[in-house]
Amino acid sequence: NVDGYLHWAWNRWNHVTASGMDPFEDIHCAGGPGDGFLVYPDLENTSVLEGTRSTAMRDAVEDNELLRLAAKKNSSEVKKIVDSLIRSYVDFERNPDKYLQARVKLLQMIG
Fold first, then answer.
1. Which of 23, 70, 83, 84 could pair with 109 in a Cys bridge, judged by C-beta atoms 3.0 to 4.6 Å apart?
2. Would you state the torsion angle of the CA atoms of residues 12, 14, 18, 20, taken in this order, to the nearest 10 degrees?
3. Could you give the count of Cα atoms lying within 13 Å of 104 in the half-sphere of its Cβ?
């Protein structure tokens, strides 16, 4: 039942490059571990490269849409699926295969 998510730091590596650091080598992600940026600079092509955090965010948005579509068919079954994966803020399924299995079930529900 989350209506949205705001992520304001799409290309936050600009503060890293301004200090003379390399965003590919000197990842700065205060307050959180892992891939510090959604995208990385692709100066050669005047573009950006997608980071793993961006990929994960896209997957989450797609999962949200899948959950919403499946809930229109059978909201109680969707709740059971979600509750089996996410038990609390700190207690959640860590096996990626379980999430893939849940996606298959949800896709079958929306047929």
1. 70
2. 80
3. 6
Mean pLDDT of 41-59: 88
Cβ of 78: how many Cβ atoms within 10 Å?
21
H-helix segments, the chain: 14-18, 52-85, 96-110
Q: At what angle do helices 96-110 and 52-85 cross, to 10 degrees?
A: 80
Average confidence score pLDDT of the chain: 84
pLDDT at residue 32 above 60?
A: no
Measured distance CA(32)–CA(28) in Å, rounded: 9
Return the SS3 of 94: coil
- Mean pLDDT for the stretch of residues 50-62: 88
Q: How far is CA 10 from the centre of its chain?
A: 13
